[in-house]
Specification:
alpha+beta; 2 domains; Translation Initiation Factor IF3; Alpha-Beta Plaits; elongated; three-stranded antiparallel β-sheet; 9 strands; 3 helices
Length: about 190
């Protein structure tokens, strides 16, 4: 038996961004909570329609529920909507969006996420390379100890996809850095 591990790493630039906007409203009156939520959504959707770059917007979730205290007494109606914007990433798009949100009256909080459209392909290539590297190591060990590899007894994968770090250039300018990927293949070969 021969056990080996092999690790492969790579980095890719960010080429896609996704922004999640959270909109809330609350009132003891159902109709008022509903109207306020819909008004804020309409304001945000109208604001987003003014963006100069190509993007897709969708309502990812929409809820309006009753809220009770610990004694099961009604407190209020609370509405929440999650609006999702997806587009290609570049610094100008990000800055335009941040500037638009700064003047928006929707009151939406937002979270940026950055990725690369080819992460799955890169990950698969890293797995192939790590597995082939493990086989090369196993063959070297087998040859040096006068053994012959008969097959794989067990293999496992450790996969790390690190979050995209951001670099702040100014108060409103956050630029994502490269996305780092790492895979490790552990293989036990029968001899």
């Amino acid at each position: 038996m021969i056990k080996v591990s092999n690790t492969e790493k790579s980095s890719v630039p960010v080429n896609e961004m996704s922004v999640a906007f959270n909109i809330t409203s609350s009132s003891t009156d159902y109709q008022e909570a509903l109207t306020n939520l819909n008004t804020k959504i309409d304001i945000l959707l109208n604001d987003l329609s003014k963006l100069s770059f190509e993007h897709e917007v969708r309502v990812a979730s929409y809820t309006l529920r009753k809220v009770y205290d610990k004694n099961n007494e009604f407190l209020e109606y609370r509405g929440n909507a999650l609006i999702q914007l997806d587009s290609d990433y570049n610094e100008n798009n990000t800055l335009e969006l941040i500037e638009l949100l700064n003047s928006s009256e929707s009151g939406a909080s937002f979270t940026f996420s950055f990725t690369n459209s080819n992460i799955a392909t890169l990950r698969n290539a890293l797995i192939d390379s790590a597995y082939n590297g493990a086989l090369v190591k196993a063959n070297i060990l087998a040859k040096s100890s006068n053994q012959e590899i008969k097959g794989v007894k067990e293999a496992s994968l450790r996969d790390n996809h690190y979050p995209t770090p951001l670099r702040a250039y100014s108060e409103i300018q956050l630029v994502p850095q490269e996305i780092n990927l790492q895979v490790t293949v552990d293989v036990e070969y029968e001899t």
